Amino acid sequence: MNEKAVVILSGGLDSTTCMGIAADKGYEIYALTFDYGQRHRHEVEHAKRVAQFYGVKQHRIVKLDFLRQIGGSALTDPEMEVPTEGVTDDIPVTYVPGRNLIFLSLATSYAEVVGARTIFIGVSAVDYSGYPDCRPEFIASMNETIRRVTKTSQQERPIVIEAPLVHLSKADTIRLGTRLGVPYHLTTSCYQGQSPACGVCDSCRLRLKGFAEAGVEDPIPYVTRQPS
Amino acid sequence: MNEKAVVILSGGLDSTTCMGIAADKGYEIYALTFDYGQRHRHEVEHAKRVAQFYGVKQHRIVKLDFLRQIGGSALTDPEMEVPTEGVTDDIPVTYVPGRNLIFLSLATSYAEVVGARTIFIGVSAVDYSGYPDCRPEFIASMNETIRRVTKTSQQERPIVIEAPLVHLSKADTIRLGTRLGVPYHLTTSCYQGQSPACGVCDSCRLRLKGFAEAGVEDPIPYVTRQPS
After folding, report:
1. Contact in structure between A20 and A53 (CB atoms under 8 Å)
2. Which residues bind Zn(2+) (chains A, B) (predicted)?
3. What is the ipTM of this complex?
């Protein structure tokens, strides 16, 4: 029997690359997608197609209305606008407070119940939007917290978060994914939730820059292709 | 303007005592209750009454169907039975994997959005059910993780979890709460979700033992009052 892994799958470029990595390593995959009232919730449909592509064992879609209810981010609050002027050095208004903390907490519970010992998450601290919950220090600390909280802490193998893209640039991620046959045509990245993608939000800009640097054609349609 | 605090409120004895402590310290309270498909979800109604008693600024009730969907605990899986034979040394089947990790993650997000810097949680590692997510090592590690993940990590005051009951016995908690005028008549503890309370599940047993040791009359009705 194959080892099991939980893969946090948004339907975007990075998490879909993680699916490719987990599949390449032979894991039986339990995909976990969050429907948290994000402006770009069409990504949930993309996640379904990606999960189907990889023939996952189970795909759970978790509704988290709470994040929309409390707002506080341009991704969940319809009153706030998504910036389209380019990536800056500050933590942007698209940051959803504690999002990956919440996602990884729920993934830990899921992993413990299905008997997975590995959780994949596609965070990267290179070519990213400056979100604090994408940094390697956060992942390391979260691993420590998980080790203390789960039942398995008394056993030999704790649940461990793997963030295989954390030190990769977007271009490196795309090169790796392309080698692994990752279906980028099924993914979406646009924060504005547009199809064709807007091409000007931070997420579209970072994606386009990555494909350009990798020398690979981005297979999805755009309204406009802005350099980052 | 008063300082704000998020209080995780189940409607049970410990979290209601935390409400009393937060109120006594003068915090403006943002109560957070989780409806996660627990067998004893009548506690949500008790939480509402407690929140009303304390005149909280806001009371959010978060639906988390996911925990019920994945099961894995006697508290969320109707197929599993709640033990009634007494408290043992093992992690019991009523443990909900990662429950406090999930609750604190969502509380962190809530605190960040409303501008609270303190989160109260009523965990105790004395007279408890052996859950790993109630131990002080977990709280300390979670505080470290929160410090790394939240926006406020760059500012002076990070969000901090306070677990004022973590080293208190149940009797000490009840003595403290009684001094603070905590409305224990509004609370419930029964894992079986019964009213009158069953008196024989771990949670009823620990509560009854605590009141007996504190020399205080437990104001709620029981089917039977078993010594722990």
Report:
1. no
2. 190, 198, 201, 204
3. 0.89
